[in-house]
Amino acid sequence: MAKPTIVVMPGDGIGKIVTPEAVRVLDAAGFHANYVHGDIGWDFWIREGNPLPDRTIDLLRRHKLGLFGAITSKPKAQADAELTPELKGKGLSYFSPIVRMRQLFDLDICVRPCQTFPGNPLNFIRRKGDGFEEPKVDAVIFRQNTECLYSGVEWTDPPAPVRAALETHPKMAAYKKVAGKDLAVSCRIFTRTACRRIAQAAFEHAKRFGYKSVTVCEKPNVIRETSGMMEEEARKVAAEFPGIRLWATNIDAQMMWLTKNPEDYGVMVAGNMFGDIISDGFAGLVGGLGFACSANLGREVAVFEPTHGSAPKYAGLSPSIVNPIATILAGCMLLEHVGQTELAERIRGAVQQVVAEGKVRTYDMLRLAGGPKVFEQGAASTQQMTDAVIARL
Q1: Are strands 267-270 and 138-144 parallel, antiparallel or unpaired?
Q2: DSSP single-letter state for residue 87
Q3: Which of 18, 85, 154, 226 is the most exposed place for a label (fewest CB within 10 A)?
């Protein structure tokens, strides 16, 4: 079998720190691959006016596999202000490179597993009688990855044809007297094909791994058209999987239930925005973003990433303090995607042993405020955590 080639895109901030650590673990586990660097992120927006250069797109188109770190995003005015002088005033508009990547390669299925590691001091606990209990959380969120509010179809001061079209809806009467410069509109776009595809992926995962239910988490009682379409398609798909129950919850109620009975939920499916919200909610129950990974899957291209941001305030610290486990687990998802399930299980087992033993913990696992003094309080560096995982391999 030919070696796969992985396009490694560290990006910004701590992405440049944790991505090489994940590659180090993949190498130590015996994964044989070629790695090529892909430019992405804020530096390329500033210097080139494009945070996802065409050369990186070409690499992904050729090699089909990516390992991504993190990117920095800033509000429109600040993004425009940081462009080099020769690029200012040319009508350039910043758009998240990871969102663009998802749309460009139709990476419409986002899979975000959120599972507890025994012994993790950050695991969710709750009161029971006079004591406490720690329920096992084992949830996998299937997030539709290319549509919804992330489609980028939005305006401040909508053009006249857009505003005229919107005003054909009777509920726009409330905004008829609002000046254009004071009106911002973002479109929540769902398509039936994409809703069905994400629901199908969720049910297939539930069947493969023995989950007894799939929960569609939207808000159809208020957002009737888009959330309604997602729930309608999920019900159609559910009919093809008679052994798996379909539950439906509203996103607001679901966020409350996360802290009451998270062990009741297995596979979750939602649109882009609500999927983003609920996956971060579940991540908070299993250790936070230092343990949260995801896969962005299309029909040809797949990109794997931690779900945390670039955390620039920590990027310049030496030694580094950030937790590399989320990116290491993203590497495990990549391994599974290319059929290296045994290697993925070995790495997850090594992470589990390190967490359970509790001798090596990064600052977040010790519930410390981030900063250079965490080492004085017993925190491990990023590299020490990776070393510990590799030693367990």
Answers
A1: parallel
A2: G
A3: 85
